[in-house]
Design a protein that fits this description.
This protein has 264 residues and is mostly beta strands. Helices cover 14% and strands 36% of the residues. The protein has three helices and 17 strands. The protein has helices spanning 4-17, 24-40, 51-55, and strands at 59-61, 64-66, 71-74, 81-84, 90-93, 97-99, 108-110, 131-141, 147-159, 166-175, 178-185, 191-193, 202-204, 225-228, 236-241, 245-251, 254-259. Strand 10 (166-175) and strand 11 (178-185) form a beta hairpin. Helix 1 (4-17) packs antiparallel against helix 2 (24-40). The longest helix has 17 residues, at 24-40. The radius of gyration is 35 Å and the shape is elongated. The termini are far apart.
């Protein structure tokens, strides 16, 4: 099978056979025939005129290469491949994806070369208060093989004003078939548990009217749990076990004790 290099060779021979010193017209004809030979044989050197089609490429321009829907780059017969599908998505299939590393050990690994700081940016062009700007969603399947989002971590804008911007994050989990916010961390460092607008460092809220908000402090091998009001005259509240079950409140060095008895 002829190659486009044969066309180039024949053009050179033909022009030099015409005389020891090619004229400008002959030289121009020579270059033109070389260009035509390359274009006719689609740059692939096969000489069959359909090299681009054989590769599945629909066109080559100065800006890049056009490929048809569901075209892919793969490793032989293996499933490791990059797929360009009809929906406009690009997918990495059957392989770990590495950024800054040639040996990723998980589905996606980001490595900052030279002691740098590995960073991923998630966001968009939104600039409206109380709108989400990015998140991680953790999916699985339900009993009917429906893809299901079981939990998520989302970031949102609270105030987009230049110079006084605020943001917040929320943790959501699947509850009875729908994602619900369970924890909010706002721009003041306040955490809401069951509350999306916390009014204190820890704000716990239970939506069930029959339930009671509970803060549990547990230590398996020590019989005390402490809430300590640091740098305050309001003291320490301690759940203690001495002769009786009790709650001890210490204020300004004075200990007050509230005895707790089982409900008879």
């Amino acid at each position: 099978m002829a190659k486009y290099t044969d066309v180039i060779r024949d053009a050179i021979i033909a022009n030099f056979e015409a005389g020891d010193q090619p004229t400008a017209a002959q030289f121009t004809n020579w270059i033109t025939r070389i260009q035509e030979g390359i274009e006719e044989h689609d740059h692939d050197g096969t000489g069959d005129g359909d090299g681009i089609a054989a590769l599945g490429i629909t066109g080559i321009t100065g800006a890049g290469v056009d490929v048809p829907d569901d075209w892919y780059i793969g490793i032989g017969a293996a499933l490791e491949r990059i797929v360009f599908d009809a929906a406009g998505d690009i997918s990495v299939m059957g392989a770990n994806f590495g950024v800054g590393t040639l040996a990723p050990t998980v589905l996606m690994e980001v490595f900052a070369i030279g002691g740098g700081f590995g960073t991923l940016y998630f966001g968009g062009s939104r600039k409206v208060a109380w709108q989400g700007i990015g998140g991680f969603y953790f999916t699985g399947y339900d009993s009917n093989d429906n893809k299901t989002e079981y939990a998520a971590v989302n970031a949102s804008i609270a105030d987009p004003t230049d110079g006084t911007e605020d943001g917040y994050m929320q943790l959501t989990t699947m509850q009875n078939g729908a994602l619900a916010v369970v924890t909010t961390l706002d721009w003041l460092g306040q955490m809401g548990v069951g509350e999306v607008l916390p009014e204190g460092r820890i704000h716990s809220k239970v939506l069930d009217a029959l339930a009671i908000p509970t803060l549990v402090l547990e230590q398996l091998d020590i019989s005390e749990g402490t809430i300590n009001f640091i740098a305050s005259d309001r003291g320490v509240i301690t759940g203690a076990t001495n002769s009786v079950k009790s709650v001890r409140v210490e204020v300004g060095g004075v200990v007050y004790r509230l005895a707790v008895y089982a409900d008879a």
